[in-house]
Amino acid sequence: MTGQPAGAAAAKTPRTARPEARLLVPALIFIALVVAAVASLGTPLITSVATSFHVSLGSAQWTLTIALLSGAVATPVLGRLGAGPYRRATILATLAIVVAGSALTVLPLPFAWLLAGRAAQGIGLGLTALMMGVARDHLPEERSATVIALISVVSIIGAGVGYPLAALLAEYGGVRTTYGLGLAVTAAALLTAWRSMPEAPEGRSAHVDVTGAVVLAAALLLVLYLAGEQHLWSQHPAVASGLAVAAVVLLCAWAVIELRSTTPLVDVRAVRHPAVAGANIAMFVGGIGMYLLLTLITRYAQTPHGAGYGFGLTTFVAGLVLIPFSVLGFVAGKLTPRIRSRISGPLLLAGSAVVVGGGFALFAAARSNLAELFVAMGVLGLGVGGFSAAMPGVILAVTPKSETSSAMSFNYVVRSVGYSLGSAIGGLILTTGTDPGHLFPDDGAYTTAAVVGIGAMAITALTSLVLARRRSPGTSA
Fold first, then answer.
1. Which of 57, 78, 305, 395 could form a disulfide with 126 if both were Cys (CB 3.0 to 4.6 A apart)?
2. Which Pfam families match (predicted)?
């Protein structure tokens, strides 16, 4: 008699679970892609926003900066909430906020409301780590490793997917049309999550350290503000230095708060593990280099011929240069989990960093025609895709399942700060290389920036190699 109910349950379970399992993997990847692409919409629209809203380019730049800032601040909070029993509710509520923010960007409202909408859209970036947590909890181990790698990759190549389409829509339909696309895809992501996201496993608990969250938010605000406001360093260096010191003090205070808290926002003790610390250092320095080249190439392609170099491409055509980056990045993301069975995660990080450095070298040595830019961008995509796909395996190999979202959210914060600094360093180098009275920098400034990027990727590769040597023989990625 006991066998019949068990058999009936076994027969019943696949019918109820199979549709959810079938939807889960594409849903996770789709949501990660959408939030990354929508947050990056500010990049190709800065000039259009300045024209449409009659604001300066510096003010329009905040449509991108504020999304990155809100994402960096929200990520650790969402990561902690996602580690608890309310993960599904957290995902749905966050996507609802993103949809509401997308609506604000579409409605004919003043510029301040556009910034508020972009901040709400940026909060969605915190969902990437939660998607990884869902995959690790609800998929078989081998399958989850592959899916987590893809989620990590699409969270980066999302910018490459959204850039050309956003630029095309802005060129023919205006800024509101482009943001309308963001509203449509975020609404689709919310519906997808509502249909496919499972509840978190039982027995989890999560308490948000409000004090730690506020201190971290203040520190990140200063860091990203200083990275985005390059003129502050040249015009008011004393003020900029004071704010930099304040940011360091706040970060130190946050670390102390987390160490003393019984329910920390981020488990700082776990972050101190050699594998996790090494991976985050590699992510920080590598992020500086990766984003440096990504912004350099698109800016170089749009420089008019009158500057003595460049190709004078429109925003849309320049965005097409990102296609090799996205395609080869996705290919690398698919191949990396297979390679990881033969090569350790830290060695994959080192190899990917070398590939990214090769992209810098190509750009430094050969950029006289568009084909060479496409090749350099393709090499960058291959390296970034491999690096992004290998990173989660290195961290999660020493992280409990219940802490997946929290651990990866901290890595995302590190990545965001690295990207912001990479963008700022690139802009600073080009500004320094611009002669007085000239609008565009000298061609040699791009070479200098590429050399700096090669140095950053060399440090990243060396850090990863040290991590590979220190890695415990019993640890499996």
1. 78
2. MFS_1
Residue of 338, 351, 334 whose CA lies nearest to 387? 351
- Residues 164 and 295 both lie in one domain: no
Place 314 in a pLDDT band, splitting at 50, 70 and 90.
confident
- The predicted pLDDT at position 19 comes to 44
Element spanning 303, H or E: none
pLDDT at 14 over 50: no
User: Residue 404: its pLDDT value, please?
Assistant: 77
460 plus 410 within the same structural domain: yes
Rounded mean pLDDT, 383-389: 90
> Residue 251 to residues 88, 221, 222, 347, 352: CA-CA distances in angstroms?
30, 11, 10, 30, 30
Answer yes or no: are the C-beta atoms of 130 and 405 closer than 8 Å: yes
In a domain, 9, yes or no: no
How many C-beta atoms surround the C-beta of residue 387 within 10 A?
32
Domain extent for 220: 209-264
Report CA-CA distances (Å) from 428 to 253, 313, 460: 29, 23, 21
Cα(3)–Cα(6) distance, integer angstroms = 5
Say if 8 falls within a structural domain: no
The pLDDT score that the predictor gives to residue 21 is: 58
Q: Which pLDDT tens digit goes with each residue over 186-221?
A: 999 999 999 999 887 776 666 777 788 888 888 888
Same domain, 417 and 326: yes
Average pLDDT over residues 247-271: 82
In angstroms, the CA 434 to CA 442 distance is 6
* Residue at 162 is within a domain: yes
Q: pLDDT-derived band of residue 470, with 50, 70 and 90 as boundaries? A: low
* pLDDT value of residue 204: 66
Does 325 lie in the same domain as 313?
Answer: yes
Q: Which residue has the tokens 């999660």?
A: 396
Is residue 3 assigned to a domain? no
Contact 105, 114 (CB under 8 A): yes
Residue 14, number of CB atoms within 10 A of its CB: 10
3-state helix, strand, coil in the chain (%, to 5): 85, 0, 15
**Using CA atoms, how far apart are residues 282 and 107, in angstroms rounded to an integer?**
41
Q: Which of 184, 399, 147, 391 is nearest to 270 (CA)?
A: 399
- The span from the CA of 312 to the CA of 305, in Å, is 6
Distance CA 354, CA 460 (A): 9
DSSP state of 272: T
- pTM over 0.70? The answer is yes
CA dist., res. 382 & res. 280, Å (int): 20
Q: 404-424 burial string, b = 16+ CB within 10 Å, else e? A: bbbbbbbbbbbbbbbbbbbbb
